[in-house]
Description:
alpha/beta
Amino acid sequence: MKTKLAFICDEMNHFLVRSMVTELRVAGYGVDVYPMSINAYSFINSEHGIFIVYMDGFSSDSEKLLGSLGVVLGDKKKDRRLYLIGTDENLRQAGGCIEQTLVTHAFRRPVNMESVLKELSIINPSYTYDGSLKISDGFVQDRSRKTILIVDDDDIYLRTIESWFTDEYNVYTAASVTSAISLLKKVSTDLILLDYEMPLLSGLDFLRILRSEPATEKIPIIFLTAKDDKEIILEILREEPTGYLLKTTAPILLKHNIKNFFDGKELWWKDE
């Protein structure tokens, strides 16, 4: 049975919030999303065992919610946990509204979802996350090489294209948008090769997430598409990526295109 989780936030449709909720669901949690203005007393008889409050600022709604959550969590008849996400100032303000003994853990923004999932796993050890994203504390990125991040949900294609570039570049891979977001918190990248069509969050969703954050808005992105479909290509180009290439492009031509990009030359946009 899935652990029921209430995710409470100000902007329910924000890309970063959607990404976090998606990763929680992929990890095996039953996630319900609520606005900050919800009356927390409605949770008294609910099945939610975990509450995550994502603070994007601190409002009167935040204050009321945390105050009433304190009453809900004070009922020891149910095993419930509270996690807070916010800036240092948000968390300081939250401390004045709810007893700190009722807060299981507080995360500072920008939040690392791998850290969140690890912390949650303490009470829900059945969940899984992408262990390939683990990078040791002593990790040093080789800055003498350009770095490429490849994002694609097709594991065979992902490993194949990775093998084409490892001799010349630092290469990282991610099988989902949420995994890619977690990885970008650990390493810097000079180029993202991005699959257009993926489940849950698409390549276009990922591009919009990156463009919404100052730290990632300027990362070059080249889309990889499986089909030479005019409508798909037009949809991609409306978002103004660095470019697009077909997955059917021969390895030697794909490598040549990436070299052209790093040399400041034009891409060959598709197979002739």
